[in-house]
Automatic annotation (TrEMBL):
Keywords: Transferase. Coiled coil: none annotated. One of its GO terms (molecular function) is transferase activity. This is CoA transferase subunit A.
Length: 251
């Protein structure tokens, strides 16, 4: 039951070229930077990533993106990541953009063993009809486009069929965790982290504070240890490394 491993490098040592990764976080919040860096240091590439976004300010998944280690991204937000946009438009990376709530539910469904579900999000758009550019050809044309999805009517309303997502590995960050893998997330870091963790066949969690079994109030646990296979305790320096994406100053 003790799922703690000695280092981030050991925790991701079996990630191979071509692996799929579900990665928690949003922007700079709740991003498993230490685990991502360990994946980068291992030298693997041709990765398929499922995450809300692909890093920001040269941190998070942006580290792997800049090194051209990512082949495909399933996400819902490009944001201000200019390198992500450049690679996408240049045809260097395949990108499946889907509504943010749909992405969250696809991860949750995959983790819950639900193969597919119907949602009204995207009905009447290219999300359902197909034709969204997944990969450009580098000359302004579309090399790979999204296929059409099944649409059905329930009680007079149309819904599009979306499939659950599972990945080879999931990388997440938690504020507290015990040796059994039970995790507690802090505030808005409890965004995509629990969902990504559920979707991974092997889930690795970096925790800012490692506690012993029994120290976490069961009513306060956000993700039970059944979804987590490996736990990495961060150093105080790693736990304190939390960047701010934008600062606003007023007189």
């Amino acid at each position: 039951m003790d799922k703690v491993v000695a280092s981030a490098a050991e925790a991701v040592a079996d990630v191979r070229d071509g692996a799929s990764l579900a990665v928690g976080g949003f922007g700079l919040c709740g991003v498993p930077n230490t685990l991502i860096q360990a994946v980068y240091d291992s030298g693997v590439g041709d990765l398929s990533v499922v995450s809300n976004n692909c890093g920001a300010m040269e941190s998070g998944l942006a580290v792997l993106l800049a090194a051209h280690r990512i082949r495909r991204v399933t996400g819902s937000y490009i944001g201000a990541n200019k390198e992500f946009a450049r690679q996408y438009l240049a045809g260097e990376i395949e990108v499946e953009m889907i509504p943010q709530g749909t992405l969250a539910e696809r991860l949750r469904a995959g983790g819950a063993g639900i193969p597919a579900f119907y949602t009204p999000a995207g009905v009447g758009t290219q999300v359902a009809a197909g034709g969204l550019p997944w990969r450009y050809d580098g000359r302004g044309g579309v090399a790979v486009a999204s296929p059409p999805k099944e649409v059905r009517e329930f009680d007079g309303r149309h819904y599009v069929l979306e499939h659950g997502i599972t990945c080879d590995f999931a990388l997440v960050r938690a504020a507290r965790g015990d040796r059994h893998g039970n995790l507690v997330f802090a505030k808005s870091a409890r965004n995509f982290n629990p969902l990504a963790a559920m979707a991974g066949r092997i889930t690795v969690a970096e925790v800012e504070e490692l506690v012993e079994p029994g120290e976490l109030d069961p009513d306060q646990v956000h993700l039970p240890g059944v979804f987590v296979q490996r736990v990495v305790a961060l150093t105080p320096e790693q736990a304190a490394d939390k960047r701010i994406e934008k600062r606003t100053v007023r007189a």
